[in-house]
Design a protein that fits this description.
The protein is 15% helix and 32% strand. Strand 10 and strand 11 form a beta hairpin. The protein has 2 domains: 155 residues, SH3 type barrels, CATH 2.30.30; 63 residues, PRC-barrel domain (SH3 type barrels, Roll). The protein is an alpha+beta fold.
Length: 222
C-alpha cells in the first residue's frame, strides 16, 4: 500500500549482509538504478574472498524483509545457486545481455517485460539457462528494451553521491544521499546539501523536480 512506504537512505541499505538459505554470502555494496525511471534494478553484493574478482547481482525483489537488528536481508537461494549464476567481472559495466543472462538463469521475469524480478510462472528454477516467453510489453518497457539493447543506462547510488544539483539559475548544492522507497524499490529523491550563502543544512528534492542526470556530475532539477 502506498501509505505504508518504507523510505531508507541508500547509505543505510549498503552494508547490510545478505543471508542465503545455507549461510551468509556477503554485504550490499551498492544499488544500481536506471537513469530514466529511477527504478532500483540491481543490488550489488560484495562477497569478499568467497567469489573474488566478480560482482554478484540480484534484483531487489529477490530480497525478503530485512532483519534490522542483525542488519541483513534473507534471500531464498542457496550459495551454490548464487555461485554458479552469471555475473560481470568486478571491473565490467552491466550490459543488457548480462541482465538477460542473470534473469534467464534464475527463471525470473526481467523488469523490462513489466516484471521486477518476480519469479516467472512455475516458480524459480535453481540452475541453468531458463528459456521464457516474452509477454506483450507495456509501452514504457518497449521503450527501455529497444532504445539501446546493449546499454541499460544504469547508475550507481554511490556514484551520484557528491553530484552537483543544478537549478535553472545555477548550482544549489550537492547530493549527500538518495532516498530509496523499499516498498517499490525506486529512488524517490536526492538528499541535498545546500551551498547557498546564509543557508546551512540538508533538504529533500521532490521526485517531480528531478529532470535527469548529466554526465558532468550534475543532478538537474527545476
Amino acid at each position: 500500500m502506498k501509505g505504508d512506504r518504507i523510505m531508507q537512505r541508500s547509505s543505510h541499505i549498503t552494508g547490510y549482509q545478505l543471508r542465503a538459505k545455507d549461510g551468509t554470502i556477503g554485504r550490499i555494496e551498492d544499488l544500481l538504478f536506471d537513469e530514466r525511471h529511477f527504478g532500483v534494478r540491481w543490488v550489488v553484493i560484495d562477497t569478499g574472498t568467497w567469489l573474488p574478482g566478480r560482482k554478484v547481482l540480484l534484483p531487489p525483489n529477490a530480497l525478503s524483509a530485512p532483519d534490522t537488528r542483525a542488519r541483513e536481508y534473507p534471500v531464498d537461494l542457496e550459495k551454490d545457486q548464487i555461485k554458479e549464476a552469471p555475473g560481470p567481472a568486478s571491473d565490467q559495466p552491466v550490459s543488457r545481455q548480462m541482465e538477460t543472462d542473470i534473469y534467464g538463469y534464475y527463471g525470473w521475469t526481467p523488469y523490462w517485460y513489466g516484471g521486477f524480478g518476480y519469479p516467472a510462472p512455475g516458480g524459480m528454477v535453481p540452475a541453468g539457462a531458463v528459456p521464457f516467453t516474452a509477454p506483450v510489453l507495456p509501452e514504457e518497457a518497449r521503450d527501455m528494451e529497444t532504445s539501446d539493447p546493449g546499454d541499460p543506462k544504469l547508475r550507481s547510488a554511490t556514484e551520484v553521491t557528491g553530484y552537483h544539483v543544478e537549478a535553472t539559475d545555477g548550482t544549489i548544492g550537492h547530493v549527500e544521499d538518495v532516498m530509496v522507497d523499499e516498498t517499490e524499490w525506486a529512488i524517490r529523491y536526492p538528499e541535498v546539501r545546500h551551498l547557498g550563502a546564509g543557508f546551512s543544512g540538508s533538504a529533500h528534492g521532490r521526485p517531480f523536480e528531478i529532470k535527469g542526470l548529466g554526465w558532468q556530475t550534475a543532478w538537474q532539477g527545476t
